[in-house]
UniProtKB/TrEMBL annotation:
Pfam families attached to this UniProt entry: 2-Hacid_dh_C (PF02826)
Keyword NAD: yes
Organismal lineage: Bacteria, Bacillati, Bacillota, Bacilli, Bacillales
Annotated protein name in UniProt: D-2-hydroxyacid dehydrogenase
Gene source species: Solibacillus palustris
Residue ranges of every copy of the D-isomer specific 2-hydroxyacid dehydrogenase NAD-binding domain listed in the record: 103-276
Length: 315
């Protein structure tokens, strides 16, 4: 039997159908990574944060790592690559909950919902809020992949003009225009909303500098839902202190959790979310919807699996 080792425990209602569907598989479920159980594993299913380079010395039989996450920056990429272990992930799984989170933040900002909630707490009837509309605006989506394209689809339903920037410049789904990242500075002045969905790679680290914010509209809303090392924290603090843009919504940070002493906590023109915009009660369910067809293929000797990754490239 093929040994599949989960380093997390799916709910019972998800676990039972999985076991029933694959009678030829020996599933092992645990709440953390155990080196003894890893020894027997041919397939490892993990969120990606528990596996360290030193663990691979015990994983003699390991052939495939399925990561129930989109990001792999905390994984021992070089050690995995040196063993030529197959890696795939759940890219695209986050697109529904993340799009809903991003849209919620945009509408809350445009329609002054934080102000509404604050007045309710004070028992005050106060109409002195600055309300604006989403329709008719332009959104620049940096990294219009699976999630970014879904954001574009929803924003277009609100009559938002969408511009995408990616590495290739090839047309992305639900973008009115798509350009190469090389010309990002040409696109930034056009945007009312700038949304980054970029992964963490050597090319994207600190990609955005003060100069990028200086050429944005002073009324712009900047949103980072990709990875926190896109821009230095000190740069963000400067930009927001000097009000080079109107507001920022951050779900990711250079250091996580965001330190309690960070000046970002005290700033009125920033909304801070604790890197949970992708969370959903359906997360593991959607992960298994990707894993199960891939496992059927793997058992049949087919290695053309969904979301195959080049581990050293980072995606």
């Amino acid at each position: 039997m093929v040994n599949v080792y989960f380093t997390f425990e799916p709910r019972e209602d998800l676990r039972k159908p999985l076991i029933t569907e694959f009678p030829q598989v020996d599933f092992v479920f645990d709440s953390k990574l155990d080196t003894e159980k890893l020894r027997a594993a041919e397939i490892l299913v993990t969120y990606g944060e528990d596996l360290k380079a030193e663990h691979l010395q015990y994983a003699d039989k390991l052939q495939w790592i399925f990561i129930a996450s989109a990001g792999i920056e905390k994984m021992p990429a070089e050690a995995i690559a040196s063993r030529d272990i197959f890696v795939s992930n759940v890219r695209g799984i986050h697109k529904k909950p993340m799009t809903e989170s991003i849209l919620a933040h945009i509408l809350a900002y445009k329609r002054a919902l934080p102000f509404v909630y604050e007045q309710q707490k004070k028992h005050e009837w106060n109409k002195k809020a600055r309300l604006s509309e989403l329709n008719g605006s332009t959104a620049l989506i940096i990294g219009p992949g699976a999630i970014g394209s879904e954001i574009g689809r929803i924003l277009q339903a609100f009559d938002v003009y969408t511009i995408g920037c990616n590495r290739s410049g090839e047309q992305a789904s639900f973008m009115n225009e798509t350009h190469k990242l090389d010309v990002l500075k040409d696109q930034l002045p056009k945007a009312d909303i700038v949304i980054s969905m970029l992964p963490s790679t050597a090319e994207t680290k600190h990609l955005l500098t003060r100069e990028h914010f200086e050429i944005m509209k002073d009324s712009a809303l900047f949103m980072n839902f990709g990875r926190g090392d896109l821009v230095k924290t000190d740069t963000l603090v400067e930009v927001l202190t000097e009000k080079l843009i109107a507001h920022a919504v951050l779900d990711v940070y250079e250091i996580e959790p965001l330190p309690a002493e960070s000046p970002l906590w005290e700033m009125e023109n920033v909304t801070l979310s604790p890197h949970f915009s992708s969370h959903s009660s359906r997360y593991v369910e959607r992960s298994l919807d990707i894993f199960k067809p891939s496992l059927h293929k793997w058992l049949a000797g087919d290695r053309d699996l969904e979301n195959k990754m080049v581990i050293l490239r980072g995606y």
